[in-house]
Write a structure and sequence with these properties.
This protein is an alpha/beta fold and 467 residues long. The protein is 50% helix and 10% strand. It has 23 helices and 8 strands.
């Protein structure tokens, strides 16, 4: 039977009065507005130290907000035990003294708070205002006093959640029926641990909130989680607040390259080795380029550049998310790998031709060839697929307007695939290439793709890493 919390907010369509919403923005700007310095405070009394981040449900409706101190304050606080206590006290004081919760309408307010603060009598002042406190127990045993206080405050209308890894804390079984929400913090690897997943499955009445979702891949892993399925009812993070489209990528990345890169990172492989592994799957490369766009403002023209901008730690975390999403690799695998192989061969051929003529930016030629089939892989228009990337102008020109210095090489690669001998001859004349040189480049591209052994590696690596 769904919990009261779930019934209240899972399918709610809360409306907020426009004047109340403007006041809410003044008192607690959204986090992204705070970071950009874009939020004006029209009245002196509106100069608060609070900001908020949106929480949405599976229908993309805003059902709540997490409140926190503004980033410029948080960055100055060393979150040790004593400083964290001051942080919590300041946050709680703001919530009590400002009319923030009254401005939310039916939306709930989520606040992270150390467990010790629930013994503060002032907390009861927030009762009946759709307030939900995610308690931090650390590794402490849940004391009888805390259990009694939580039960007392819940009777007054306050709600409580815990972090996923703390569901295993000693004494937590006494609070099973008092927990209104369980938080999956994507900054913590523990959410993928089998013992924690088992404990969560044992409590099917707990709705789940996935927080710190900062990329499409993190969102996708939670939306189609192999561990939690559709138990994840709520989503929060910079990706959610940015209101990016929630459309799906019909073709997933292959298991083999994904597993291989995870293993290479664990082995501390060289950057070039990692970049070469990323090039073995065009969809994985596309996803990396999309992630790199959020990391740096400059254009990204190669797998190596994207990898350096994202970093190994973030890449490992991102691949772990992907490994725990419900990816159907069996369906259409033969068709999909054929399309992937065609894209890889096209990219490799273009790169070989650029190297043969000693042209600069050979990796951009490779990228042009690989991405020339990305629309079909993702079942999107080319323009829509490329919106998510920050590519060099020459690559975009070849792919979107069939122009620029790379397009003639793309034309040649397509003519080679189609065995259009007249087209090959015309392109060779235009580019100053010989038929023998093109044939050599084609042979190398075919051999390179064959060595990737997409089908064989898929089976071998899936057995090694059975996600």
């Amino acid at each position: 039977m769904p919990s009261l919390f779930s019934r209240l907010f899972q399918n709610a369509t809360p409306e907020v009065d426009s004047a109340a919403f403007e006041r809410l923005n003044a008192l607690s700007p959204r986090m992204e507005s705070d970071e950009a310095g874009a939020c004006a405070t029209p009245h002196p009394e509106d100069k608060t130290i609070i900001c908020r981040e949106t929480i949405v449900n599976r229908q993309e409706r805003v059902v709540g907000h997490e409140f926190m101190l503004k980033k410029n304050i948080t960055e100055r606080v060393h979150i040790g035990h004593a400083m964290r206590r001051l942080y919590d006290q300041a946050l709680l004081s703001q919530l009590i003294n400002l009319p923030l919760l009254q401005l939310l309408g039916q939306r709930f307010a989520l606040v992270n708070l150390a467990t010790e603060h629930i013994l503060d009598d002032k907390l009861a002042l927030l009762s009946g205002q759709h307030a939900l406190f995610v308690l931090r127990f650390s590794d402490e045993m849940v004391s009888p006093a805390i259990i009694l206080q939580i039960k007392k405050l819940r009777k007054k209308g306050l709600k409580f959640g815990i972090l996923a890894h703390e569901c295993l804390n000693p004494g937590m079984d006494e609070l099973v029926d008092e927990i209104d929400l369980l938080v999956l913090d994507l900054n913590e690897d523990a959410i993928f641990a089998s013992d924690i997943a088992s404990a969560i499955h044992a409590q099917p009445h707990w709705p789940l909130l996935a927080c710190h979702i900062d990329s499409y891949e993190a969102f996708d892993a939670m939306w189609e989680s192999t561990l939690y399925g559709q138990r994840v009812a709520f989503f929060q993070g910079s990706f959610i607040s940015s209101r990016d489209e929630w459309g799906v990528n019909p073709m997933p990345a292959l298991r083999a390259p994904l597993a291989r890169i995870l293993r290479l990172i664990e082995q501390e492989a060289a950057t070039q080795v990692l970049a070469d592994a990323l090039k073995a799957d065009p969809v994985l490369l596309y996803k990396l380029l999309r992630m790199a766009k959020s990391s740096i403002a400059e254009t990204i023209g190669s797998a190596e550049q994207a990898l350096l901008s994202v970093g190994r730690e973030q890449l490992y975390r991102w691949l772990t998310f992907m490994a725990h999403s419900q990816l159907d690799f069996a369906e259409h695998l033969e068709r999909d790998t054929a399309l992937l192989a065609a894209a890889l061969q096209r990219g490799r051929l273009m790169r070989n031709l650029a190297v043969q003529q000693s042209l600069p930016q050979a990796e951009q030629f490779f990228l042009t060839g690989v991405l020339s089939l990305i629309g079909g892989m993702l079942q999107q228009s080319m323009a829509d697929a490329l919106k998510a990337l920050n590519l060099p102008d020459a690559v975009l020109a070849a792919l979107l307007t069939r122009s620029g210095p790379y397009f003639p090489y793309l034309q040649l690669a397509i003519a080679v695939e189609m065995q259009d001998f007249h087209g090959i001859s015309q392109c060779c004349k235009t580019l100053g290439l010989t038929a023998i040189g093109v044939k050599q480049s084609q042979h190398d591209a075919q051999q390179w793709v064959a060595e990737l052994s997409l089908h064989d590696d898929e089976q071998r690596e899936t057995a090694r890493y059975p996600f």
